[in-house]
Amino acid sequence: MQFYVDGFRGGDPDIKNAAPNRRDRAAHAPLPEKVDVVIAGTGPAGLALAAQLAQFPEIDTMIVERDPKNIAKGKADGINTRTMEMFQAYGIAERVKRESYWVNQTNFWMPDPDNKGHIKRIGRVQDVADDSSEMPHILINQARLHQLFLDVMANSPSRLAPDYSWSVKDLTIDPDAEEYPVTVTLEDTGVDWGQTRKVRANYVVGCDGARSNVRKAIGGELHGDAAHQAWGVMDILANTDFPDVRQKCLIASETEGNILILPREGGYLFRMYVELSKLNPDERVAERGFTQDDMIAAANRIMAPYTIDVQEVVWWSIYEIGHRMTDRFDDVPEGSDRNPRVFTAGDACHTHSPKAGQGMNVSMQDTFNLGWKLAHVFQGRADASILKSYSAERWAEAKRLVDTDHEWARIMSAPPGESMADEGGEPRIVSQFKANLEFTGGLAVKYGESALIGPATHQALAKGEEIGRRFHSAPVVRVADAKQMQLGHVAEADGRWRIYAFAGKDHGPLRALADWL
Question: Residues 101, 273, 390, 447: which is the catalytic one?
Fold first, then answer.
């Protein structure tokens, strides 16, 4: 039994009371004519936003997905420490920790100096720096992560659920309309394939991937370059004599290419990213017709003298590396001062290689940034101009991601001889990995001074909590009940603000603050 503002009730405390105004979301039920927010895509970015907005039943949110149901396997798998801190705010961190593989260490394998055709372990690096976060770096199936977000939505006051088999085909914006200025054309991809419906919305968020129709509708284009390098990825069950198969490994052979090994949750499967061939400048990876057998053969060449006998391939894909991003993450034209109505997030506005493990993380961090701002606007707690900060803040972080990943992908694909560039005799791939730890953990994000973030005038009073960066949690004992806990875990993704007052031994200022509050 727990006591809430509406009295006592039993049962699962994670299941909120359903709001009376929630929409009937029966399978392929008629779509509404008007909603507050349309989210396109049920990938990590879209679901992270939907799970946050679902806590506000007064906000009529609709999330559409062109596929008929949630994915079952494959795609991304890495969750960094900052994203795990976000999951704590959603209330799912403990479930993720229980079900996932924890990446505690990364091992590096390079050509054996005594036999260049064979690889040899040259070092191990702790994957999460001490005191950087209370959370681990983990690996979990993206489909399972989707389901955890869907559970949060289903248990929310709004009982939000995706409208599957609908995709955003196009949208238009009426700049003179104060309410529902965005008209979204949805296309049926299921029962009545090709039929369209129009829904009016106050805001639209495109989380619909690299081929985003939302991005195209607002004139956005992905700019950047391609590395013209083919890679394969596969989740496999295999017999192998490679000794580090249950640890994350970066492997560079002398002439055959590179491999990234990631153990999967459950103790049996592991994922391999395998470097295949260079592509011609005008060639696409699909034209080569690579197969899973090509990947397995390449893996055995790279890992000599060790072998991999694949028993089952659970999922596999071929891709080429590209580093691209759009000029802005909203619909506001250059030089205009109007407030945005349409946003893009995740792969819809920035793409990069998967080898730094950042794609799914940065995508969710995009919409985590946007969600509370939308909620504040609808609740009348902030002016709509606050929404301008989304593109400004997240574009800068995406640019840093693309630049860092571009350099990391180049280092990973460089021949071993070109990687021995560290002054201390350490291979550059190892030294760069260490240098990137704060970034790859998602902990290097720093937003500049804005309407939301004040100047660093009084930064000296709290040197350990840098203005513009995420709140760094710490273990504390709650005085009221002597409970040991993490200070940062007090905050939830519920739209409320928290004040943390750090006091010294002289309690006079703290008491004065308490009296004022």
Answer: 273
Structure tokens at 372: 């509370």
User: What are the backbone dihedrals phi and psi of residue 486, each rounded to the nearest 5 degrees, phi first?
Assistant: -95, 130
CA–CA dist 119, 109 (Å, integer): 6
Distances (CA, A) of 202 to 20, 25, 247: 22, 20, 47
Catalytic residue among 66, 82, 215, 264: 264
pLDDT value at position 253?
A: 93
Instruction: Based on the residue annotation, tell me whether 77 is a catalytic residue of this protein.
Output: yes
Low-confidence ranges of the chain (pLDDT < 50): none
Q: What is the model's pLDDT at position 466?
A: 93
Q: Which domains does the chain have, with CATH numbers?
A: 27-74+142-222+339-398 (3.50.50.60), 102-137+226-322 (3.30.9.10), 473-516 (no CATH)
Where helices occur in 379-419 by DSSP H, the ranges are: 388-413, 416-419
Give the per-residue pLDDT at 1: 55
d(CA 175, CA 161): 30
Q: What are phi and psi of 339, to 5 degrees?
A: -80, 145
Q: 136, 354, 416, 427: which is the annotated catalytic residue? A: 354
Residue-wise pLDDT for 222-246, tens only, equals 998 876 778 899 999 999 999 999 9
